[in-house]
Design a protein that fits this description.
Layout lengths: L6 E4 L3 H12 L4 E4 L7 H9 L2 E4 L7 E2 L7 H6 L2 H10 L4 E3 L4 E4 L4 H13 L3 E3 L4 E7 L2 E6 L2 E5 L2 E3 L14 H8 L4 E7 L3 E2 L2 H7 L6 E8 L2 E9 L3 E3 L1 H7 L9 E3 L6 H11 L5 H5 L5 H10 L11 H12 L1 E2 L4 E2 L7 E6 L17 E3 L7 E2 L4 H21 L1
Parallel strand pairs: 1-2, 1-11, 2-7, 11-21
Antiparallel strand pairs: 3-6, 4-22, 5-6, 8-9, 9-10, 12-20, 13-16, 13-19, 14-15, 14-17, 15-16, 17-18
Helix pairs in contact: 1-5, 1-13, 9-12
Length: about 400
């Protein structure tokens, strides 16, 4: 592995692969290292094995960061269509599932194969099963001691991901490197993750595990309409995974259990048309019956609708549109799809991803404090940030 190399990329996930491919296409000699036994492990598992590889509706507003402007430059220069064009060139069939989310028709293995084929075509050397033991910066070179021997290059790209899903090899190595070179690392926590319930809140819902219904989840000014799934330990489903990135213990989290409906007007209409029907009966016709019955056992008195004066019907409607969900925590990094926080963008160039502190040092992908919504946005950030760093490597070596 002695080289000579123009750049070494640590981490053969989505961002690292794209960076290596981009730099390699421009004639740069790139060494791509990963401690795992194969590349793209998170790509392989994503989207239920079909890889939700981008989202056609990607905008900077779909990302969380201490600096919401940081992601704009990279996203503008590598759009979802750019990756779609790459997928199409490799004749990989895909489809849109919902909300701009694009998936492979067949398997996520096709995306990994595509990226490896692109690496080969670009002359990138890929080494797996190669843990990094030490990184030093001497003069104008980064010198690495690895399990497969030493290597060096004038540029080093850190694409090591975050802490989510440690069973797949996730670690804090990228954050350790960032701190080693004088970078701040903002506090990290699990994102896009199921929430847990405890005590009476858990007891009230645990036997409803498996029940799903559409909701609008709201917290700290964010709102997402999608499915809620009751689990044995709490709640999950796309709406909950989305809102989890905006929620922390103690925050007020509300669910509209009948999204898109004027609940008071609907209840008043039901009262006129079916005065003898019980509240739990009419609710059971527009949401899972077991869930409606539990609502009426604990939160809402169930009586024939004619017995509700308007003064009582209004709070019933208000509760249905802003039902409080008292979560105690999350399932943590074990099942989280992403890591919030990470390398502070204040000391990184938004156009090149290069460190403002150390010449030739780059940070891309999930290790950086940029986190996307559920639905292909994090892959698009990986492609875009990797592409930006790859172009910068090409310009730097020219």
């Amino acid at each position: 592995m002695q080289g000579p190399w123009d750049a070494i990329v640590i981490g053969a996930g989505a961002a690292g692969l794209m960076c290596a491919i981009t730099a390699g296409r421009h004639g740069r000699r790139v060494l791509l290292l990963d401690h795992a036994n194969k590349v793209g492990k998170k790509i392989l598992m994503s989207g239920g094995g079909r890889c939700n590889f981008t989202n056609t509706g990607t905008t900077p507003a779909n990302y969380l960061s201490a600096n919401p402007h940081y992601c704009k430059s990279a996203l503008a220069r590598y759009a979802p269509q750019d990756f779609i064009d790459l997928v199409d060139r490799h004749r990989i069939a895909w489809h849109e599932k919902e909300l701009g989310q694009l998936f492979c028709d067949d398997s996520s293995k096709q995306i990994v194969r595509m990226l490896l084929d692109e690496c080969e075509a670009a002359g990138v050397r890929v080494e797996t099963g190669c843990p990094i033991e030490e990184v030093r910066h001497h003069g104008d070179h980064f010198r690495l001691h690895t399990a497969q021997g030493p290597c060096a290059a004038p540029a080093l790209v850190v694409a090591t991901g975050g802490l989510s899903i440690p069973s797949m090899g996730a670690s804090g190595f990228g954050y350790t490197l960032a701190r080693q070179f004088g970078h701040e690392v903002l506090p990290t926590r699990a994102g896009l993750v199921p929430l847990t319930l405890s005590g009476k809140h858990h007891e009230r819902l645990q036997d409803l595990a498996g029940v799903a219904l559409p909701v609008e989840a709201r917290c700290n000014g964010a709102r997402f309409s999608n499915q809620l799934l009751v689990t044995h330990r709490g709640v999950s489903g796309p709406a909950i995974l989305q809102i989890s990135s905006y929620w922390q213990p103690g925050d007020d989290l509300r669910l509209d259990l009948l999204p898109g409906r004027d609940v008071l007007a609907w209840l008043q209409a039901q009262q006129r048309e079916r005065p003898a029907a019980e509240l739990k009966t009419v609710l059971g016709e527009v949401m899972p019956r077991r869930f409606a019955q539990r609502l009426c056992e604990i939160w809402l008195p169930s009586r024939p609708l004619r017995q509700y004066p308007d003064a009582e019907l209004r709070p019933v409607a208000a509760l249905l549109q802003a039902w409080p969900l008292i979560a105690s925590g999350s399932e943590g990094y074990r099942t989280a799809e992403v890591t919030l926080g990470g390398v502070d963008t204040d000391q990184l160039s938004s156009s090149t991803m290069m460190s403002r502190r150390v010449e030739g040092l780059y940070f891309i992908g999930e290790v950086v404090d940029v986190t996307g919504w559920l639905g292909g946005y994090n892959f698009q950030w990986a492609w875009a940030s990797g592409h930006a760093a790859g172009l910068a490597l090409a310009a730097r070596a020219a």
